[in-house]
Target: Transglutaminase family protein
Amino acid sequence: MTEIHIGSTLQYDVRQRTVFLFQITAGLTSRQRVVNEQLNFDPFVEVEDCQVGVEGNRVHRVIVEPCQFSVNYQATVDLKQEIDPQTQIGESKVAEMPAEVLTYMNPSRYCESDLLGRFAFEEFGQLERGFSRVQAICDWVYDHLDYTPGSTNATTTAADVLLQRTGVCRDYAHLAIALCRGVGIPARYLSGYAVDLQPPDYHGFMEAFLDGEWYMFDPTRLASTVGLVRIGVGRDAADVAFSTLTGSALLMQKNVWANFAESKPNLDEPSAVSTA
Amino acid sequence: MTEIHIGSTLQYDVRQRTVFLFQITAGLTSRQRVVNEQLNFDPFVEVEDCQVGVEGNRVHRVIVEPCQFSVNYQATVDLKQEIDPQTQIGESKVAEMPAEVLTYMNPSRYCESDLLGRFAFEEFGQLERGFSRVQAICDWVYDHLDYTPGSTNATTTAADVLLQRTGVCRDYAHLAIALCRGVGIPARYLSGYAVDLQPPDYHGFMEAFLDGEWYMFDPTRLASTVGLVRIGVGRDAADVAFSTLTGSALLMQKNVWANFAESKPNLDEPSAVSTA
Amino acid sequence: MTEIHIGSTLQYDVRQRTVFLFQITAGLTSRQRVVNEQLNFDPFVEVEDCQVGVEGNRVHRVIVEPCQFSVNYQATVDLKQEIDPQTQIGESKVAEMPAEVLTYMNPSRYCESDLLGRFAFEEFGQLERGFSRVQAICDWVYDHLDYTPGSTNATTTAADVLLQRTGVCRDYAHLAIALCRGVGIPARYLSGYAVDLQPPDYHGFMEAFLDGEWYMFDPTRLASTVGLVRIGVGRDAADVAFSTLTGSALLMQKNVWANFAESKPNLDEPSAVSTA
Amino acid sequence: MTEIHIGSTLQYDVRQRTVFLFQITAGLTSRQRVVNEQLNFDPFVEVEDCQVGVEGNRVHRVIVEPCQFSVNYQATVDLKQEIDPQTQIGESKVAEMPAEVLTYMNPSRYCESDLLGRFAFEEFGQLERGFSRVQAICDWVYDHLDYTPGSTNATTTAADVLLQRTGVCRDYAHLAIALCRGVGIPARYLSGYAVDLQPPDYHGFMEAFLDGEWYMFDPTRLASTVGLVRIGVGRDAADVAFSTLTGSALLMQKNVWANFAESKPNLDEPSAVSTA
Model:
């Protein structure tokens, strides 16, 4: 088990009555256990805790009148680290995939696997199937993109990124997801906290479905998968925005942090971390 | 209650072992009751009945060895027709929407509501909120597009259609969905059977979430909503393809039919049909 | 005649041997006469004066070794103001257009008139033909876009802008050009200097071919057409970049100015200025 | 010298007064000499011979009243075959390129070299400069695309093709052009007649500017460059449509042919053919 402290603070200048949907709290999964957590709003507002989507993403809905508004979240999370002998992990056949996994084969807003299918097949279709193929896709993404803040925006898609060859974590994940789906591997997007991320921010990474389980990958290599705490999961970034607001409010400040409670486990990278 | 007979036959030339995912059977919802149904495969194959996605779409998975393969589906469905006084139906506020509805506000592969948001807001932002606004969106789509088979393909999106102004049922629905989401109304895609559809085929239409319920619309005006039988529901057409196949098979023939068991109810159009 | 003083200074940090193509000097046309001009490079370099494209855009090519490099241009230009009775100006028929105008009917990189043709026709196809129709297109662009620096980049096209509804001068011009071509009016892009432009910069605007002549329009309304001095002309912004460089150099500073030599002529707007 | 017979017949059902711009006659260049030619219209109409664009493309403009209208073109063309030792041919430096070549470095409607620049640079940036690099680009295009009639349409661009990996001659040429421009080699689109093309049709191919001259390439490998007769040249296919019509007319039939007057010269492929 690895214990990780995470947290974030968001400050808004709320100009008129605004409905916020926050997705900033640690997900509750069999892999990660929330030891303790606090979610505070200042000034105090009633909060509604929603479970959204098939995976039950935790979304907190609040209605805020005009004010200086801040949200503070802090938690300690225990991560189960299953170190798998990655070379042994194969792919699941479509004939055997659980029904709930099938939608993660479909193209989505930012991961147009239908457009990228032939490219994916040409580039990765002949590789040995399994964990190593997803790793090869992530390596390709890492090798061919330049991590360039500001080079993309909220409407940039995997196809855009494949051509322009620059992006940030969200774009890396979208491209890796689209390429996985393109060769028939279910893949999904995760938002989360990442230990040692520089500069500190919420992070975006991905999971591929292999041999009956979801495995995490971070194509940016900005963070070790052993320090990744999942917030939400979705088809792409559209499903896990840290905040969605209806009304009028300006984000004034954002602080995000994550660190190991104790010394980091000594593990060789890349390790395979399966989740559920 | 309206009783409708529906059915379809698909014939494939299966060239090598192929996994099929079929989505051709009537959905099981509170609005529509399947009185009887038969799903037959020739030659006989084991079939696995999957529930996919949050809405539990019925997907039938079969594995087929090389052969001439045919699928036949027939059913009688009872539709509950709730004729609502449509002018009374308002919109739901984000602050009050059920959690499971929120994902239908997100952009999806073929409904880029993020790109079309400003257009939607300019064109429909000032209209009175409610059923009539969705009707206005569907009317706009009907008025501005030419129904032109062959003018679009599997990768055509709502943004493409908004520019090129042609499409088929799928494109009409995608554009209407994107515009609804663009003004803050949850909307989703439905595949189904449509009584009197010419030429006969599976149909694509949409639902908007208003005042706590989903309401059906067909922006093509090719079919009356009282004769629409839902197969599956999703964010867009990517989620409800009538068949998805992994392997090698050629669709040789497709027959689709739907008709009222008795004389069609005499209803003025457009009527509001709420579903769940 | 209107006399205008224009000029610009560009400073570069040249990191390695770089070939520059500058397009910053006033065009030589029957409408505008360069009374005097100076183009200086510091340090001194050999300069080659090229005439590029059908319209003979003035491009200055220099080869620069690593250094702090600056370019200074100053000129006095006399503009002939032909005040036309704009309501009398009709459109040219394809049957009568001069051959050299025909290419300005074709779609170009940033003006996809092929994609926007139906939209243009629906919106502007029924208007009376002539100057007033181009004015209606420019008014529509002005009314439906928000001038938002930073909302677009070097790859943004007219179709993008039509959807997202924001942009800068270049985007306004591209959209107006694409819509003109979409209804069969030849249109082209101009870069230039603009008196009173705030903030000062090179400007982008357009010309439409009407009744045998080119007429200038500025859909941004940021500058009066009587104060517009043309640098170059092309199918779109791709043809008239103020600098194109091969090598490695960083633009450190850019100053652009333009003002009337004497008091501005008292003319009612919008005036029709024909050029050749 | 190689003598080639070329010709084409177009038949239209003209529904209302229509202006046609035809681009179907052999270009007049230093490489190809038109020995004799006939351009006939039935019924007879006045024809205007226009020179369009910097390269003086031959465009024939006619105005046709409602009728069954046919165009017939026949010519004998002498091609000068300059067999160059291709490995010796280098690239031109930007510093030395003739001014009229510079616009062929710009992105165009169907050749978005700005979007594909990084891809081009990654894939071909390190290759030895010269004829062999253009050949490598054409080989890459040939190897990675499937020639699939119907897979693209009039709005398909090089970026689309790079992702979807299918197309026809026009798409092959567009992608090769965009990739050449992406690495700094001027490139342009040619329409023409091609000996032995199957099925017979007008053909689309390309030229790259190397070492002071334009060299022809056909990335489809459907025709030998020694049997290519140029009609027109442009930035991309938008400039050289075989017919552009304003009015209402339906193309009923199209016949195109090209064959060697005598036995084909015995040349090893790929040969370098320079043109001007």
About this structure: DSSP finds four helices and 13 strands in chain C. Residues 266-272 of chain C have pLDDT under 50 and may be disordered.
